[in-house]
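Can't paste images in this forum, so I'm doing it all in text. The chain is below; anyone willing to post the predicted structure tokens underneath?
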Amino acid sequence: QVLLVESGGGLVQAGTSLRLSCAASGRTFSSYSMGWFRQSAEKGREFVAACSWSGSNTYYADSVKGRFTISTDNAKNTVYLQMNILKPEDTAMYYCAADSRSPEVMVRTTWWGKLDYWGQGTQVTVSS
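Text version of the structure:
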């Protein structure tokens, strides 16, 4: 059984940092693309970041570029999202996803319903 389990969310003040983790299990992900998405009542689902499992070919939403960094740890089978200079508008449930195709597909809204695996999410709340 493939599982993606997110952790690391919480309540923080604006301007601080958080690191989210996504522990992947149940198969080999070395050829997969990994991504982070977020969802809030105000904005719906948004793409945040994606990369190939090797960590190359990274993509970021304009709203997080320069503040967030996606990375992978092969030894731990884990994907991270380092979030710096957090803003109240970053408040959302954050989800990890994995897909056998190029990380570019995660940028395209038409592909979100077709991604192979999703985690259950971790809540991030940023207070002003």
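The longest strand covers residues 44-52. The two ends are 40 Å apart (CA to CA).
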